[in-house]
Write a structure and sequence with these properties.
Strand content: over 45%
Number of strands: 7
Order of helices and strands: EEEEHEEE
Shape: elongated
Helix content: under 10%
Number of helices: 1
Oligomer: single chain
Radius of gyration: 14 Å
Length: about 110
């Protein structure tokens, strides 16, 4: 859930992600939230462990929702334009994304 979709440089996005493990996770994956342009490059991002760097995905109960609050600051020099907010999990050792994917969360605008 994203409270709004229009941001100014210097704003902080407040994002609520709800994860649900469909099977036990053997690793502690890291979370990413990227504000990406049409070229796929992030202009803003947050990477770290879920739960504001406190939760271990290997401890998530199967089928139970895990509510995760994420804050992404838009840099002061971010160019105006249309962007996509992407989120997902990845292996911190290899960088490989879980499911080999980034989940599009929302279209956003920076003005």
């Amino acid at each position: 859930h994203l409270g709004k979709t229009r941001y100014a440089p210097g704003d902080t996005m407040r994002l609520l992600l709800v994860w649900r493990a469909t099977k036990p996770l053997a690793k502690d994956y890291k979370l990413f939230a990227h504000v990406a342009g049409a070229d796929g490059r992030p202009v803003a991002q947050w990477d770290g462990l879920p739960g504001l760097n406190t939760a271990r995905t290997s401890q998530w109960p199967v089928g139970e929702p895990f509510r995760d609050h994420v804050f992404v600051r838009i840099p002061e020099d971010a160019p105006s334009g249309e962007y996509t907010l992407l989120a997902g999990l990845y292996d911190g050792e290899t960088g490989a994304r879980l499911g080999d994917a980034a989940i599009p969360v929302a279209a956003i605008e920076i003005r």
